[in-house]
Amino acid sequence: MENITKEHITSYPYQSPIGQFDIIGNDQGIQAIQFVGKQEQPINKTTLVNPVADSWPTSVQQCFRELDEYFAGKRIDFEVPLAPEATEFQQKVWDALLDIPWGQTLTYGKIAEQIGQPKAAQAVGAANGQNPIPIIVPCHRVVGSNGTLTGYAGGLWRKEWLLKHENVKLPGKQLSLLDF
């Protein structure tokens, strides 16, 4: 992930099964994905349409394609260029998030160990919460030390939905509410 300049960054609305979000980026990469509104439940997937214009930056077009594939269950890894603004510590944490495989979870403590700062679990949690590119940088795959769901900027129901979509089994958590 590289930092990008703020000039020529535009927002593009994207409809997903977990609500609308704006994809923010330019030809250098995606800078952010921001949830829009206060939707509180999944949307019927058959009603979603995300037209892409040829005039859009190539990274945004690629992001739309890859997200469409992810939500259709046809993609487990993203290849779109990413370019969030980050401190060195945040970048380490977000890079570690990118290493969490589809369908698996890690705890904040394990990520702290992976980045060589085993006592920084709370700081990892803070950096995780400041991740500007949810879904693609999979902060939803981070759980509490006992395996329970903890905060998610888009709401815990979205985190639950994403983990179910990835076939994650959560201890003691019934996900039947989110069948899709």
Provide structural commentary.
The protein has 2 domains: 11-72, no CATH class; 88-166, Arc Repressor Mutant, subunit A (Orthogonal Bundle). The protein has 5 helices and 5 strands; from the N terminus they run βββααβααβα. The chain has helices at residues 58-71, 88-98, 108-114, 121-129, 156-165, and strands at residues 10-16, 19-26, 29-35, 106-107, 142-143. The protein has a 3-stranded antiparallel sheet with strand order 1-2-3, with helices on one face. Strands 4-5 form a two-stranded parallel ribbon. β1 (10-16) and β2 (19-26) form a beta hairpin. The protein is globular and about 45 Å long.
Number of beta strands: 5
The number of domains is 2
Task: Report the C-alpha radius of gyration, rounded.
Answer: 16 Å
Regions with pLDDT < 50 over 5+ consecutive residues? 2-6, 174-180
Any idea what the shape is? globular
H/E topology pattern: EEEHHEHHEH
- Quick one: biggest sheet? 3 strands, antiparallel
Measured as a percent range, the helix fraction is 25-40%
- CATH A-level architecture of the largest domain: Orthogonal Bundle
Give the integer mean of the pLDDT values.
86
The CATH class of the largest domain: Mainly Alpha
Give me the CATH fold name of the largest domain.
Answer: Arc Repressor Mutant, subunit A
Strand content: 5-15%
Number of helices: 5
Q: Termini separation (Å)?
A: 33 Å
The H-level CATH homologous superfamily of the largest domain, spelled out, is: Winged helix-like DNA-binding domain superfamily/Winged helix DNA-binding domain
Structural class: alpha+beta
Main-sheet strand order equals 1-2-3
